[in-house]
Specification:
Length: 426
């Protein structure tokens, strides 16, 4: 009875009154329409969940299951709301804490707008792993069959997406939005959420999000997403799996980056591993709250010193290979050494970039076949780590096809190639 307004038809594409947005070809009310009967309902107040559901049921095609609850604050230009869709991903549901324009922008993604976009996603029956308890690490996942490089282990939609803009709100309002979000999830999905680890023992919702969220990007905005199945993977500085986020399907993919045998733990990295032990350990302690005990963090000091020296060499060689001036000393042999150092460091999951360096270094000396070989090797791993639309992948695809058209082709011809007594130059 409170809502009688009929959604208006837009005259022009994207030309909806300020109290509405274009969705499903019609101007749909947002949450804060100034001329709407729902004026200010949901802004800085909580209404009971069933009332919030009943209020939107009269709207044809209203995209959310509940009237979103919103909070505004002087620091925050747009109010931040909790948008919930219980039908998302075949009834798995999702809640999104963000501003109205961003939430409606997300609705344009194939994940929401195309019926078959999620056909390959959220298939969690017969998984290739089992849950296992690891002393000092909590639960983790262990392979129950052999996984090969490139095998998909997960493809999952988030239960929760949060926008860092929520940190402009008062703490109580921010926490309120999180709790409201969980209440709006379908019951089975709420169970998945509460099963998540709460490492920091603070607010139970925020803590579960902080312990388990991945950084994601949606339309150039950094956000956080929680995928409960993938959140069971523990960190290792030398992981055997890699992940990426696909913003079209709003899905997170995990693939094996090397052979994983039955009984081996499946691990990913939470941080940038191309750093020395101390930097990695500090990063994990500060942002994730745990003392890293993976084999490369726990190694004997003698081996740690050797590993750190290799990391320094990786840094130095990468910098030299990135030098495209006429004084560059970079050669394909340096790129081969870089690859070897990554392999010695068991950084297989990160080999996409050293392979790219090698491809470009060979191309810069006009070596077509090695440029193609390393572009192909790079592509295989970059796909597992960067997803479908990465700029380096586009470069390597072009290189694998026609190195002669690459910007790097023959760029270093005439530069000194080998060091040594003969001073041999190509
Ligand atoms: C996303 S959860 C991973 C699954 C978690 N082990 C569980 O039981 O649900 C992240 C948390 O797992 C633990 N963890 C992950 N990797 C670890 C590691 N290498 N060493 C110690 N603890 C780790 C930490 O408590 C971390 O905050």
């Amino acid at each position: 009875e409170k809502i009688q307004q009929i959604p208006q038809q837009p005259l022009l594409k994207d030309a909806c009154p300020s109290n509405s947005v274009l969705y499903g070809g019609k101007c749909q009310p947002t949450v804060l329409g100034s001329s709407s009967p729902v004026e200010n309902i949901g802004l800085n107040v909580t209404i009971p969940l069933e009332e919030a559901r009943a209020l939107v049921e009269n709207y044809e095609d209203f995209p959310w299951t509940f009237l979103p609850e919103c909070y505004s604050h002087d620091n925050q230009k747009e109010p931040v709301c909790v948008f919930s869709d219980q039908n998302f991903a075949g009834g798995r549901g999702i809640y999104i804490v963000t501003t109205t324009p961003r939430a409606y922008q997300m609705l344009k993604k194939p994940a929401f707008s195309q019926a078959d976009a999620l056909a390959r996603i959220n298939k969690h029956d017969n998984p290739p792993f089992e849950e296992h308890e690891f002393p000092g690490k909590g639960r983790g996942l262990v392979a129950n069959k052999t996984l090969h490089r490139g095998d998909q282990i997960f493809a999952s939609t988030p239960l929760v997406i949060t926008d860092p803009d929520m940190y402009n709100l008062d703490e109580a309002e921010r926490l309120r939005l999180g709790h409201r979000g969980v209440e709006t999830l379908p019951p089975a999905t709420q169970t998945l959420f509460w099963k998540l680890l709460d490492h920091f023992k603070g607010d139970p919702v925020e803590d579960r999000v902080n312990t388990n969220a991945f950084d994601i990007n949606i339309d150039d905005t950094g956000m956080f997403a929680v995928m409960p199945e993938i959140a069971m993977l523990n960190h290792d500085c030398r992981p055997n799996a890699a992940y990426f986020w696909d913003q079209d399907t709003l899905s997170h993919y995990v693939h094996a980056t090397q052979t994983i045998y039955p009984g081996e733990e499946i691990t990913i990295t939470y941080i940038n591993n191309e750093r020395k032990r101390e930097a990695r350990m500090q990063n994990l302690k500060k942002n994730w709250g745990f003392d890293c005990s993976c084999s490369s963090c726990a190694a004997h000091p003698v081996f740690t010193a050797e590993s750190d020296a290799r990391m320094q060499a990786i840094d130095d060689i990468s910098e030299a290979l990135d030098n495209w001036t006429s004084s560059s000393t970079a050669t394909p042999e340096m790129a081969e050494l870089l690859i070897s150092l990554y392999e010695q460091e068991r950084l297989q999951a990160s080999l996409g970039i050293p392979y790219k360096h090698a491809s470009e270094a060979y191309s810069s000396f006009g070596d077509r076949y090695n440029a193609i070989k390393y572009a192909q090797l790079s592509l295989e791993l970059l796909h597992l780590d960067r997803g479908f639309n990465d700029v380096d992948i586009k470069f390597m695809l072009a290189m694998a096809k026609e190195p002669e058209k690459s910007w790097s082709w023959k760029k270093r011809v005439g530069h000194k190639r080998f060091e040594g007594e003969c001073g041999h130059a190509h």
